[in-house]
Amino acid sequence: PALFTENARKGSIVSRANSIGSTSASSVPNTDDEDSDYHQEPYKESYKDRRRRAHTQAEQKRRDAIKKGYDDLQAIVPTCEQQDFSIGSQKLSKAIVLQKTIDYIQFLHKEKKKQEEEVSTLRKDVMALKIMKVNYEQIVKAHQDNPNEGKNQVSDEVKFNVFQGIMDSLFQSFNASISVTSFQELSACVFSWIEEHCKPQTLRDIVIGVLHQVKSQLY
Questions:
Q1: DSSP code for 28
Q2: CA–CA separation, 101 vs 14, rounded Å?
Q3: Long-range contacts made by residues 74-77, C-beta under 8 angstroms, separation at least 24?
Q4: Cα–Cα distance for residue pair 112/120, rounded to 1 Å
């Protein structure tokens, strides 16, 4: 009986110890669960990561802009749309697109200069026509004011005197401006003389002066 009592006491002590141990263990935090919850939290991006991501986005945006620029050039420049048999059906490189764009711009500059020269020539023609129109209007008005004046026929001698007076005036400037050292220099001087001394206003002044001179000789 004493042994049985002792064993029962020891079993009670062990049972109480196990109970205390389980209670203590239940009060200790579960580190495994905490680790699991920690890893499930959203990742917080650092300043360095944000900066790297912003730089990557900016670089991609820059490359997209450059690519769009080359695509626009290739669509605008006509020579880029033409098939280049030397490279086949391959896509045009950036260097070729730039070179074709430069060539096309130079072509446009030449065409613009050519058109400006044509416009300048047309303006001179318009100015000459306006002067002729004014002269003819004056002739018509003078004839309407003095209808009997036109009945007097002008002789061939008078016509020749008018022509001679005009040509003499032109030859004086021609002789003073033209050099006959070589045919090339002669050609250059002729064109220069025409531009300088054969302007519509200059010719008009010469003709008016000759007509006044002939008129003073006749009347």
A1: S
A2: 96
A3: 77/101, 77/104
A4: 12
Contact 210, 163 (CB under 8 A): no
- Fill in the DSSP letter of residue 146: -
Q: Number of helices and strands (H, E) in the chain?
A: 8, 0
Q: What tokens were used for 118?
A: 């044509």
pLDDT digits (tens, 9 = 90+) for 37-89: 445 555 567 888 888 888 999 999 999 999 999 888 888 888 887 555 455 55
| Residue 79 CA from chain centroid, whole number | 16
Six token digits for residue 217: 């000789």
Rounded CA separation 99/148 (Å) = 73
pTM score of the predicted model: 0.41
In this structure, what token pair is assigned to residue 111? 């065409």
